[in-house]
Amino acid sequence: MTDACIRTVVEAIHACPTQAVLYLSGGASQALGMLMSVPGASNTVLEAVVPYTRMSMLQLLGKIPSNYCSRKTAETMALSAYNRALKLSRPGAPVLGVGFTGSLASSRPKLGDHRFHLSTRTSDQLWVSTVTLSKGSRIREEEDKVSSHLLLKAIANACKVPATFISELTESETSDEREQQFNEDQELEQLIIGDICFKVYPFSSDTQLFNEERKIILSGSFNPLHDGHLKLLEVATSICGNGYPCFELSAVNADKPPLTVSQTKDRVKQFEKVGKTVIISNQPYFYKKAELFPGSAFVIGADTAARLINPKYYDGDYGKMLEILSRCKNIGCTFLVGGRNVDGVFKRISILQVLEDFDIPEVVRDMFKSIPADSFRMDISSSEIRKNHGM
Fold this sequence. Notes:
Structural class: alpha/beta
Largest sheet: 7 strands, mixed
Shape: elongated
């Protein structure tokens, strides 16, 4: 491929909304240079990691792969990169995970084939390719160049960017490609079992919010979604001043069976009707939500705030509670707390008073901020709606 051809393809990739994380090991190093040398790389590349040693790969994958250079390892790297891209991307942006692992020419002769495996993962597709090169026909730099061009082609295809690539493989060299498509049900199933960490339904039509990285999140079961939820998030957003407002529903519950795919889709429809973005996750605990959405402001009720700062909910371990809350604070998370109507009485719990009751150190007090009662009070609950409607 000519430099001009490469630049044209990379410019098209940078012009599309897809944001990517790349995990590359054992080759395709020139692909990073191709992506980063063209203006607009920050639109595409969220992160690039080169796990080049066994220990680095082990820590990246969280397990010892049966074979470091294999199709399965490339798929696992792509899935891991996809989940990482979800966490780093703008809310609702299409994301791409890229995995590459190769065994190319080196300073020492290799007993096996010179080969590489590359994989891409998007919300609805897993693609993987295995390429076996003619041993001894190219030097390392040339093998790296071939693998880099094929990786760039794979990224372009995943971004749905039209690109013409002339094959640099000889007739004796083999390329085995496989593709698996996912529908919405399959993606939600993958979420529920923990393969992917969350799925965003960007129903909001406010394009001004698209570039906001900080999220303002109202979590709940939303069974059903009601005006109190909508008003609370609206008020919280005005208090925060900036951020992307979104609802978050965990398909996995700490005390109940997980939602079915059908139940999850039914609840998602509620947000589509009102044009509000919702994130479906598989984390029922706030400290886990904080790890998924670092730097976010979580909108919670006073009853939830009381549980967050009560050692009872941390196995009675005060130190564990403080460690978890400090970890949430250290990754930039805050809590906006609104009052609730409980048994006909409006409960507006003073956060400072609650903190003093549980003797919480000063170090985490500034994580909590009250939503003034004159700005919002929730006199309705989903449980009351279900009760009134015999649900």
